[in-house]
Amino acid sequence: MTPLSRRAFVTAAPAALLVGCGGHPAHRATAARPVITPSPPPAAARAAPALRRSAPVRLQIPAIGIDTPVMQLGLAPDGSVQVPPVTADDRAGWYRHSPTPGQVGPSVVLGHVTVGAYGDGVFRDLARLHRGDRIVVRLENGTAAVFIVGVVRTVAKADFPVEDVYGDVSRPELRLITCGGPRTGDGYLDNVIVFAAQKSASP
């Protein structure tokens, strides 16, 4: 990650809640909460070598039938992370100020659980993932980075675990984020967060 993108990543982290599912506006976190360290992913996911920077172009999660193009997301005017647009052709979005999948650090990918009048979003079944499930991220340079799910957490948006999601880690990891929990007039009350670590890479 370049110094500029690293600064943008760190600056954005406290405000980066995915709360715009279904077309509702996003808002900022009010404060960082105590860090709760997730359980480590399976041992098989611990020794993968890091990859060079290359943007993700496709995300595949066989266990829940996801095979989606990946768009790039930046920052919204209020300093929060952008979310993918609400369209019938819903896609996942990679936060471009985070590491690319396979680089050391937490690569962050966002997606909607619902897309307003269009119905289900691309991450509608994200909460159904389990420890050990496989995630494949295909990169612009032709490489495929393979991740293994370690933990799936549902957390209240008011208690979004900023450090767990955006904090430094010593290996290539992946964070998938969507909305979840009860729905209110302003959207969903919770976030579903998948924590995964890289297992391997292939051409």
Automatic annotation (TrEMBL):
Keywords (A to Z) from UniProt: Hydrolase
Top-rank taxon, per record: Bacteria
InterPro entries: Sortase (IPR005754), Sortase_dom-sf (IPR023365), Sortase_F (IPR042001), TAT_signal (IPR006311)
Matches recorded under Gene3D superfamilies: Sortase
The keyword Flavoprotein appears for this protein: no
Record's protein name: Class F sortase
